[in-house]
Amino acid sequence: MAKKKKDAAPEAQSGTVASQGDKGPYIPALSMENQSKKYDVNTTAEKVRKRDWLIRIIALILLILLLIIGIGYCSISILNKAGRFTVSLIPNDYGIQLAETEDFQNPTLNLSAAPVEDMNNITKEWILNKNGELGDDPVYNSFTELAGQWGEHNGKNYLAYTFGVRNAGAEPDDVVSYRATLVQNYEYKGADEAVRIMVIRKTDKGEEATVYAKPRTSDGKLETFAADESFMEDDVVFEDIRSDFMVGEIDRYTVVIWLEGEDPECVNAIMGGEAKFSMQFEVIGGGKADVG
Question: What are the sequence ranges of the domains in the chain?
Answer without folding.
Answer: 28-81, 82-286
